[in-house]
Amino acid sequence: MFDFQQKLRKFFDYLQVKQRLVLCYFSLLAIINAYTIRYCLDFSLNRIVRELAKTKSIKTPLIAKPTTRRENRNTARTTARPRPKPRQRAGRDQLKLNPQHLQQTQFHAPVITTSNCSDVWTKEVQILVSASFYAGYMLTHIPGGRLAERYGGKWILGASILLSAILTLLTPTIVRHGGPGALMALRLLIGFCEGPTFPAVSALLAQWVPESERGLLCSCVLSGGEIGVIFVHLVNGLSLGEEDWAMAFYVVGGGAMLWFVGFVLVCYSKPDASPFIQSSEREYIKSQVSDTLITEAETEATDTNEAPWSNMLLNAPIWALIAANMQHDWNQQEMAQELQQLLHQLQSKSSTLWTELESSLRVTAPHLWSWLASLTSGQLSDYLIANGILNRTQTRCLMSWLVFVSSSMYLVYDKQQSARMWSVLAFGAYYAGIKLLPLDMSPNFAGTLMGISNGLGSLPGLLLPLLQQLESEYEIVGSIRAAFWLICAGYISGDVQSYNQRQRRSNQPIVH
């Protein structure tokens, strides 16, 4: 292992690769894997139900009825025809051994009759299967963030993706040999395992990313879900021609396991623990991370087991952050449904992704442009802060107001082609502004803040059908959503909050 690390360090030194970029690259892939695992079933569920409707069958024995010798030979090959005994005297014994009489009393072999599973895989059941992921997903956000802050984000993130990948590989087997209840339990468990992903990533970014590069690098990583949605759409679309929906689960699960191997080999929770980082980069990161971030030397003088829950939950910017996360997840769920509907249409027409390439590109383009827009707005944020044009809070507020305007226009032009441009701007500004706030507000508790905001922000995924019904029946729902964005834009803060400073033990000096 030591020789391997030496060779890998020489390789990084030769290419002059910055380890903070390596960490961000693998964190981006972690978010992509998390989203592909999340949406893989949603994109395949319609095909799964169709396959089960065609293949699910039961064996039923038929009532005995007279058959001819030819019908017996064709339909029941496994039933042996009794050989007549030697000719005997006429009478009662001859009547018993008459072959024609024996054929009258034979039974058919069990035959296969196809059963309709629509009474099992109803629309309501499919909704519960999709929602079961979010029920487990919301539970482990806060515990995952606390564990990542206490023990480091590397193994919390790695275990989260690895366990989710293994369960994803088991999904086809569970679907084909279990019922809807088994699939719900599996998806609940996958969500439970995947919940710590975003909090663990935030804990890693707080340790590795300098403040001057936070807008670009962190927005690039945290917006990786847009790439994940595109990837899972392409994987499921390419498997349409093969008529094998299980291939998507094997590709997604296998890719996540390969990511885990590379991640644990080259990534570490803190710069001080990495054997590959050069001393110049380590000192640069230490000098550029937040001054309020607790260092390794200060950890012994602090109480690391307690989080300031009351101060956090009474903090107005946190609730603005939660409301913004809910709005964003709601919009993202609706955009992902467009990709699902496209796959359903292709399947109903027996088409493939290649035959409808133009339609597919048109629907996936907003996700790609949103990711690119997040890079642009992140770079702009870093520029405004570095040159003193705006401070951090003003920059985040600027991005939040851009999200408010773009989201409002998206709601106004909903269901129209012109809405796509506004959704791209809204998503790009969201990742460079609102999504970074846990890192700004409390570097020491970035994982916990991300767990609170992203965990509660996932509530629309659990209640999406109900929310969509309310939005379609009551026009005021759109106005309420716009008002929520307005409140978020007015109350967010990019300043370090008072609860960021961990409580020091008595009679312990501050270590510099």
Can you describe this structure?
The model is unreliable at 57-67, 75-80, 88-97, 101-115 and 506-512 (pLDDT under 50). The chain is 70% helix and 2% strand. The protein has helices spanning 2-15, 19-55, 69-75, 92-96, 99-104, 123-137, 141-151, 153-177, 180-194, 197-208, 214-222, 224-238, 246-266, 279-288, 296-299, 309-313, 316-348, 357-386, 392-412, 419-433, 437-441, 446-457, 459-473, 476-491; strands at residues 57-60, 111-114. The chain is globular and about 65 Å long. Helix 2 (19-55) packs parallel to helix 8, helix 11 runs antiparallel to helix 18 (357-386) and helix 18 (357-386) runs antiparallel to helix 19 (392-412). It is mainly α and 512 residues long. The protein has a two-stranded antiparallel ribbon with strand order 1-2. The longest helix has 37 residues, at 19-55. It is built from 24 helices and 2 strands.
Please write out the topology.
Blueprint: H1 2-15, H2 19-55, E1 57-60, H3 69-75, H4 92-96, H5 99-104, E2 111-114, H6 123-137, H7 141-151, H8 153-177, H9 180-194, H10 197-208, H11 214-222, H12 224-238, H13 246-266, H14 279-288, H15 296-299, H16 309-313, H17 316-348, H18 357-386, H19 392-412, H20 419-433, H21 437-441, H22 446-457, H23 459-473, H24 476-491
Antiparallel strand pairs: 1-2
